[in-house]
Structures are given as structure tokens and as C-alpha cells.
Amino acid sequence: MKILKTYIRVVDAVNYRIGRVVMYGIFVLMGILLWSSISKTFFLPSLWTLEMAQFVMVGYYILGGPYSLQMGSNVRMDLLYGEWTPRRKAGVDCLTVLFLIFYLGVLLKGGIDSTAYSFKYGGERSPSAWRPYLWPIKVTMCIGIGLMLLQALSELAKDILRLRGQWNFEGEDATAERADAL
Fold first, then answer.
1. Which pTM value belongs to this model?
2. Contact by Cβ (8 Å): 108, 119
């Protein structure tokens, strides 16, 4: 169980720190979109702004997903779940997280295959007028999906420990405290 708790502490700390940094990506996205608006209004429109905004948004969501899962910000059907005991929630979460882990595994396999294809053929490029290389965003997606998979496994480990009575239901250590402990 000590190994499981160490795994939880390390994964939570890494995803907490990455999530706290990535959350400021919204300002990068706003800057790109602001420049896009200004350049279209007063100058010649920039070719790169739309695609770059899409890339930044993908990175923002993909790299912020594990942090969101860790904070419990993911969407749940609270119609029944909200009234359950913490023990029952942990039991149901143990089952449902397996579907997430399977889904993330399939996504990661596809992402790795797509990234390998991009590298194999000399740098796949977007078919747009700007024609940026696609490998940076594909690598970002693989990293984000991998981190999400690690976080899902961490959540599964927490639920298993909760069911065994070895992880507090209420009054758990704050995520920030766990992150600072690393």
C-alpha cells in the first residue's frame, strides 16, 4: 500500500503543477485571438492565427484534463451520485474509471501511431496556407493523454484505498499540500 500511496502522491504532484502552469494558457489563447481581430481590422489578416489558436486550445484542454480530474471538476450525473455515501461513490468510481482507462488507452495508441506516422514521412504538415508541422501538437496530445491515463490510475488507486479504509473520505490532504510535499 505504501507503493500505491507514493504513486498517488507523485502523479498528483506532477499533474497539479502542470495544471497550474497550463491554466495560464488561456491568456496566450486570448492574445492570439486579440491579435487576429486587430490584424483583420487594421492590417492584412495573419495566416497563422486561427490554426495557432486551435493548437493552443488543444494543448490547454489536453494538458489541463488531468488537473481537472484530480480536482473533481469533471462532469458527473449527480442525480443519484450526490446522495450516495462516500464508500458507495468509491465503489462506483472504481468500476466507471475502468471505462475511462480503456478509452484513454485506445486514444493513446491512436495518438502514438499518428505521431509516428508524422515523423516517419518527414514531418506531416497541415493542408492550410500556413502549413505548420503537426508533430508538435500530436506529441502534446500524447503527453496529455498519457498524463490523464496516469491520473485516472491514481484516482482508481485512491478509490481502492478508500474501500479498504486506508484513504480518508473526508478531510483528505489538500492536493496542493500533496503537490508541495514532492
1. 0.85
2. no
